[in-house]
Amino acid sequence: MRDEQHSHPFDDDKLKEECGIFGVIGVTDAANFVALGMHALQHRGQEAGGIVTHDPATGFNSARRFGYVRDNFTDAEVMKTLPGSIGIGHVRYSTAGSKGNTAIRDVQPFFGEFSMGGAAIAHNGNLTNAAQLRRELIERGSIFQSSSDSECIIHLMARSIQRDIPERMKDALRRVEGAFSVIAMTRTKLIGVRDPLGVRPLVLGRIGDGWALSSETCGLDIIGAEFIREVEPGEMIVISDSGVIESFRPFAPMKSRFCIFEHVYFSRPDSILGGRSVYETRRQIGVELAREAPVEADLVCPVPDSGTPAAIGFSQESGIPYAMGIIRNQYMGRTFIEPTEQIRNMGVRLKLNVNRALIRGKRVILVDDSVVRGTTSRKIKEMILDAGAAEVHFRIASPPTAWPCFYGVDTPDREKLLASHMTEDEMRDYLGVDSLRFISLDGLYRAAGEAGGRDKAQPQYCDACFSGDYPVFPADMVEKGFQMKTAAE
Ligand code: SF4
């Protein structure tokens, strides 16, 4: 589904966040707020979305659809089926086990009926011991409905002997390992939880007498909710329909390891993460890059849109003029529903075009957020040279991506990551550019507000896709043959 409908050749060379979650309680027509929140979080997953609401008269109701929120959850007929003052929603890219081949049964939120009433859950992240748990649960009689690792949480809740749903969730989440931000709902409660390391984001907002939970603050902004605070790593928040909030700490305390790539690429630039504007962190990455890897040139151009804030920072720090040397066609994604081979071969040109009049004869610095396989970077370099650029210098706003992510981000297998088997100089030659430099890990940490850089003994963030230091052991993947970093690497 992903490939035919919503993906694009250009997008295949980016890491992709796999989910966004949103929930609201204590508002009239919760589904409308949930749909808006999901729309604001659409950058975190475009493959499918689902909403569950509860209404005392009709009980739990749900709708799950493939495609964009705006195409499904603006339909009055669909929204009419989702009454109630409490609701949660989920947008997904894909989950482990069904990449690009999602069945509607894999679309969250998932629902479970327990003796004390029903509960629905929406999960952002990836469980690193899901395969082991699934085997164990199936052996003990659980019948799985989906291929999603998130469904394990519902089955673990069903097996708990606790008397209420928040307690059962605590039991279940103590058994899972990996990265999870979860929003759940019962008939009368909205629940938000982050894993002990706080790998994926989750924020709390206030709207009138009601409350909202969202993956990012941009989901609060769209419904006019006030950002109150982040749900803290290892915290469970339970909000009742009378507006009472309780906070629990179900896990042993740990030093948090938030995903540093959220700062680089996944989150929207208008969101606030860890008290910092994502835009400002990205601009600061450009400043650090200009200090670490200066080069004489005539123009600094972003690879749109994600390279833009870093290119602005690079230009400000270096004094080299900023210019829109590459223009993005905003409407491309909707034009070719099923790209033919011929159109696929046009690749990047469908989405990006060079501003020839500006580029001709110039020494150009191109700022991009990351290099994954390198296929897109090569094509962009060709386009810039075709347009008559005198020199092309790449500056990359993240360190080399050399390791896959197992915490809720879709990454190619390790061999496909250019940086897993090439040095920086080899990558420069492969891309065919005059120079290529990545920001250092320390520079990235400084840009994210850690003045002293990365604490090697106790890193402040998860940076496994750059460093190979996985903060949670990826048990399922190691069982499947994944080789962890050796002492020599
Ligand atoms: S491995 Fe990379 S993308 Fe995945 S959580 Fe860690 S920093 Fe984020």
TrEMBL record:
Residues that coordinate or bind Mg(2+): S306, D368, D369
Binding site for [4Fe-4S] cluster: C259, C405, C462, C465
EC number, UniProt record: 2.4.2.14
Catalytic activity: 5-phospho-beta-D-ribosylamine + L-glutamate + diphosphate = 5-phospho-alpha-D-ribose 1-diphosphate + L-glutamine + H2O
Superkingdom as given in the UniProt entry: Bacteria
Cofactor note: Binds 1 Mg(2+) ion per subunit. Binds 1 [4Fe-4S] cluster per subunit.
Any one GO BP annotation for this protein: 'de novo' IMP biosynthetic process
GO molecular function, one term: amidophosphoribosyltransferase activity
Gene3D superfamilies registered for this protein in UniProt: 3.40.50.2020, Glutamine Phosphoribosylpyrophosphate, subunit 1, domain 1 (3.60.20.10)
CDD domains: GPATase_N, PRTases_typeI
Family, per entry: In the C-terminal section; belongs to the purine/pyrimidine phosphoribosyltransferase family.
NCBIfam families, alphabetized: purF
Protein name as catalogued: Amidophosphoribosyltransferase
Organism (species): Haematobacter massiliensis
Gene coding for it: purF
